Amino acid sequence: MKVLMLDQAKCTGCRACEYACSFEHTGKFNPLDSRIKVNEFWEDLTFVPSVCLQCERAYCEEVCPTSALTKNPETGVVELNKEKCIGCKQCIVACPWGSIKLDHTGKEVIKCDNCGGDPACIKVCYPGALSYEEVEDITNVKVQETATRLKEIAKDLVKGGA
Amino acid sequence: MRHVIVGASAAGLNAARTLESLDPQGEITILSAEEVFPYSKMSLPYLLSNKVKKRDYLFLPHPSKAKLLLGQRVVNIDVERKKVETAQNKTFSYDKLLIATGAEPYVPDMELEGSPLVLTVRNLSDMDKLKDKLNKSDVKRVILSGAGLVNSEIADALAELNIPGTFVIRSSRMLSQIVDEEGSEIIAERAIESGMELITGESITKVQEEGDHVNVFLSSGKVIQGSCVVVGKGVKPSIDFLEKTPIKCDTGILVNEYMETSVKDVYAAGDVTESIDLISDEYEIHALWPVAMEQARIAATNMAGYSWKYPKEVSRNIVNLFGEVVFTGGISKEDAYDVYKEKEGRSYHKILVRDGKLVGFIFVGGVLNPGVYLAAMKNQWDISHLLNEAIKGALSYSMFKAPTREVVNI
């Protein structure tokens, strides 16, 4: 199973992903129609991309009164079935992360669908903050990254003690 | 463990789903008073406007292991012997019991209650009756007694169908329970443009059938005609069957922070309960679909032997009315604490802030991430540095989770 992976440390805040996402889904370049959002913290000069986490037991899915939202067990994506959706918006209130949201008209519900397995956002992310990877690979990378950081801390501690 | 769940709507079924995963060996029985398979009550107005494209979509997902028994109306609970008795003369023994019987429409005027000319919106059969009246009546106009959430949603559905409606409102305005005067005004303007009529400061005294329509007598003596009367004056918890039990009730069943009632091993969730509200810190009825879902999940988790605390709830509503999204939460209708308002044409934003924390809001249009507002209010995050974003409807989750260099570096 592949998942969208975000590395906040690499995000430069260019917001190309937002435009790519909007274009992929609507044919227009409107960041308000983007499923991915780059949050800007100018005081800290830090940028944080955020996108649907495809929760295991998703709040949006639980609260949907017509079962229009369901988790696809194969892809892991929480899918929105437009045919079943009545537009009641309970899902967008239920999501504490704002990852399922309204489009630019303020009326349509939109959410990340991993572009059906070929995410547009990663293709334009030149700094490499976004990637689409197998869950197992990510786990290994994370283990190594954490170990490396802890090693540096351990080294500092040794130096401090010496 | 034998789990018995009374009621098979949002709360009952979500509790069953939770129990199925947390207590796979457990025996789960759901008793439903209705004869039809559980459906989503929240979607009923959407069924009227045909936004529910197929009737099948209304039915809730079938529990995979739990036993669902239809047509079993519970009449008493023997808390000593741990048995539930139904009107169908059956008894069910339990180790843990969940009461999720929901609420029923409140018809304040006894004269109107039970009249075939007066409809309420709660069950699937109510919607069928309303559709039938609309088809048969020579007068199309629908008389809406009360302009609360349900009747406003019905009016919105009627507007979609190009059917006129008349609100008869005892107070002076629409949605007076959740929206302030400024917000009401905009919504009313939109309602009128969509073919609704508003009669304020009046109530219905008598309803009389005449041919295929009804004559409705108002307190001022005025008589109006319609196809039927829909009463939407709120709901009351369905607790009549608890009369002979020691389970403590006020308007609804009083639950503690574990969703347990005053009787051990008896839990309650959903519209039937009263629980502590986060903002007012008092017992309140949150008759809301998502609250029912959450309460049920927590009650079921505790029935399975865990001890999860229920985070105090806040009232909130999001509703599509006459082409605009109306989103409210907390003590929305009041002007208390620090009040910030922004009105621009047909959009109206208001936030109420207490000690830097969000305690209420109204958005008539123009909110990007409603879920974040709710999260900010439920968690009482400090928004004092984000007031500008908050009033614009632009709060986003990561504004609260700003990464500091330390976090990035470690």
UniProtKB/TrEMBL annotation, chain A:
One MF annotation (Gene Ontology) recorded for this entry: metal ion binding
Database matches in CDD domains: DMSOR_beta_like
Pfam families reported for this sequence: Fer4_11 (PF13247), Fer4_4 (PF12800)
PROSITE patterns in UniProt: 4FE4S_FER_1, 4FE4S_FER_2
SUPFAM superfamilies: 4Fe-4S ferredoxins (SSF54862)
InterPro entries, sorted: 4Fe4S_Fe-S-bd (IPR017896), 4Fe4S_Fe_S_CS (IPR017900), RnfB_subfamily (IPR050294)
Occurrences of domain 4Fe-4S ferredoxin-type (ranges): 2-32, 43-74, 76-105
Swiss-Prot/TrEMBL keywords: 4Fe-4S, Electron transport, Iron, Iron-sulfur, Metal-binding, Transport
PANTHER family assigned: DIMETHYLSULFOXIDE REDUCTASE CHAIN B (PTHR42859:SF10), OXIDOREDUCTASE (PTHR42859)
Official protein name in the record: 4Fe-4S ferredoxin
Provenance organism: Petrotoga miotherma DSM 10691
Source taxonomy: Bacteria, Thermotogati, Thermotogota, Thermotogae, Petrotogales
TrEMBL record, chain B:
Cofactor(s) in the UniProt record: FAD
Protein's organism: Petrotoga mexicana DSM 14811
Name of the featured protein: FAD/NAD(P)-binding domain-containing protein
Chain ranges passing through the membrane: none
Entry's Gene Ontology molecular function annotations: oxidoreductase activity
Domain FAD/NAD(P)-binding intervals: 2-296
Annotated keywords: FAD, Flavoprotein
Gene3D superfamilies linked to this entry: 3.30.390.30, FAD/NAD(P)-binding domain
Keyword flag Phosphoprotein: no
